[in-house]
Amino acid sequence: MRILLFCPKRLHLHEMVLALLNESDLFLSEEAVEQIVDQTFKQADLNDDGKIDPDEWKTFASKNPALLKNMTLPCLKDITMVFPSFILNSEVCEEEL
Fold first, then answer.
1. Which SS3 state, helix, strand or coil, does residue 51 take?
2. Which residues form the EF-hand domain (predicted)?
3. Nearest to 90 by CA among 69, 76, 78
């Protein structure tokens, strides 16, 4: 299994929110989805560069520990079965190369 190294951009987060909503048979307006993305980036993208780098993720997660409850290895192993439209792959942010 390949795991996404956290460095999402706005478009990636938007796609993940839409996939989660779709798999859960929930429907929100495009405006509501954009508000979710906007609020997430407002809180997590501390240097305002349009992506959430690993250090920003650590800071965000430390302030919101409930985010981590679904990120254990057993849960991540099953995520593609629960949410088949999620595509997990390993990517490295350009800054990490």
1. strand
2. 32-67
3. 76
* pTM score, whole prediction: 0.61
Q: CA 19, 92, 5, 34 torsion: positive or negative?
A: negative
CA–CA distance, 87 with 39 (Å, rounded to integer): 24
CA dihedral (24, 30, 35, 36) in degrees, to 10, reads 20
For the segment 8-28, the average pLDDT, to the nearest whole number, is 83
Work out the pLDDT band at 25, boundaries 50, 70, 90. Answer: confident
Residue 51: beta bridge partners?
Answer: 9
Local structure of 64: helix, strand or coil: coil
Residue with tokens 């951009």: 9
Give the residue from 69, 97, 79 showing the smallest Cα distance to 2.
79
Q: Give residue for tokens 């390949």.
A: 2
Token pair listed for 38: 């906007």
